[in-house]
């Protein structure tokens, strides 16, 4: 940190303030996304963090780095938001066909995908020695989904300790908790996360021939509306989710029942446009309008891979398409 930049920023120089804080914006947004499970909420939280930092710059004593100071503000903003009763209600257009009873093993209606494009060019801040998760696992949908099942303090402690690698004393300082409270919260959070982990094989390397072959089979099964072929690609304990709708199905039989029920609607999907989200393969799905022949986007799908099988298929609302550069229509 430049003492001159800090002095200029305290004197009201916004360019100096930006030079101090903007290098950390991207990683702060990823952190807030992990806390909140929502890209849109994470963007708002980072904006509020930067405003609070600007207004509170005189109170920054320099005992910690600017990065840690910003993480303190951002983490506590997220904790407050999670505790608030004023979070917007979950709304989504219902499916146009009846669906089977969900598995109901842990619905997470606030989950949204995170575009890989926003992960590019982030400052390469290596996690501390306490970290337990690799960066690619800590951005996966499976990880973020499991984090959303934790209470606010446990989320914050787990991310600070096991993802960012802060020591217990540092996490306690960021959260204004005792070290004993941090240790206790981390123990409970780890138990929940360990229970959510599966014994699936690791995914193939992104861009590898193995990944391309599996994804080609998935796209063919999906666009040909072949339920048997699609289910055959899935692990025995595969998940299908549709946040913010309260539908989640686990296991091939539950998945088969779901796709059989929604087949009249699903068979209208004609094209998949590839993107990437959370370090995973993803697509924008499009269906033909029978009157105009124009393709309209119907959803954003993200898959989780385990070896040569699919372990998760998650469908998100069309409102998220712009974040992935997906147009509303295709000719």
From TrEMBL:
Picking any one GO molecular function of the record gives:
DNA binding
- Report whether Oxidoreductase shows up as a keyword of the record: no
Q: Name one GO biological process term.
A: DNA-templated transcription initiation
What keywords tag this UniProt record?
Sigma factor, Transcription, Transcription regulation
- In what residue span(s) does the RNA polymerase sigma factor 70 region 4 type domain sit? 142-193
- The RNA polymerase sigma-70 region domain extends over 22-87
Q: Which family does it belong to?
A: Belongs to the sigma-70 factor family. ECF subfamily.
Task: Spell out the subunit comment.
Answer: Interacts transiently with the RNA polymerase catalytic core formed by RpoA, RpoB, RpoC and RpoZ (2 alpha, 1 beta, 1 beta' and 1 omega subunit) to form the RNA polymerase holoenzyme that can initiate transcription.
Q: What is this protein called?
A: RNA polymerase subunit sigma-70
* Organism expressing this protein natively: Jiangella anatolica
Q: What is the lineage of its organism?
A: Bacteria, Bacillati, Actinomycetota, Actinomycetes, Jiangellales
């Amino acid at each position: 940190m430049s003492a001159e930049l800090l002095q200029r920023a305290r004197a009201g120089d916004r360019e100096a303030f930006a030079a101090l804080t903007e290098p950390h914006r991207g990683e702060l947004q990823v952190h807030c996304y992990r806390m909140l499970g929502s890209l849109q909420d994470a963007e708002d939280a980072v904006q509020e963090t930067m405003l609070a930092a600007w207004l509170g710059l005189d109170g920054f004593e320099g005992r910690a780095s600017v990065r840690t100071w910003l993480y303190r503000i951002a983490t506590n903003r997220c904790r407050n938001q999670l505790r608030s009763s004023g979070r917007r209600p979950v709304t989504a257009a219902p499916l146009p066909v009846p669906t089977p009873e969900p598995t109901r093993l842990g619905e997470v209606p606030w989950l949204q995908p995170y575009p890989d494009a926003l992960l590019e060019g982030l400052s390469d801040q290596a996690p501390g020695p306490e970290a337990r998760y690799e960066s690619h696992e800590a951005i996966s949908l499976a990880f973020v989904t499991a984090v959303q099942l934790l209470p606010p303090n446990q989320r914050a402690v787990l991310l600070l300790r096991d993802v960012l690698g802060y020591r217990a004393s540092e996490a306690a300082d960021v959260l204004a908790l005792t070290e004993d409270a941090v240790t206790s919260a981390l123990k409970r959070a780890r138990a929940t996360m360990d229970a959510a982990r599966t014994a699936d094989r690791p995914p193939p390397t992104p861009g590898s021939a193995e990944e391309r072959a599996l994804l080609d089979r998935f796209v063919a099964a999906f666009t040909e509306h072949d339920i048997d072929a699609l289910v055959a690609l899935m692990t025995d304990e595969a998940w299908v989710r549709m946040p913010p709708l309260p539908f989640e199905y686990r296991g091939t039989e539950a998945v088969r029942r779901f796709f059989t029920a929604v087949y009249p609607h699903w068979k209208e999907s004609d094209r998949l446009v590839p993107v990437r989200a959370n370090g995973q393969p993803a697509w924008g799905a499009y269906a033909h309008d029978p009157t105009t022949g124009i393709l309209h986007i119907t959803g954003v799908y993200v898959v989780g891979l385990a070896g040569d099988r699919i372990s998760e298929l998650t469908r998100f609302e069309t409102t998220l398409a712009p974040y992935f550069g997906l147009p509303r229509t295709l000719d």
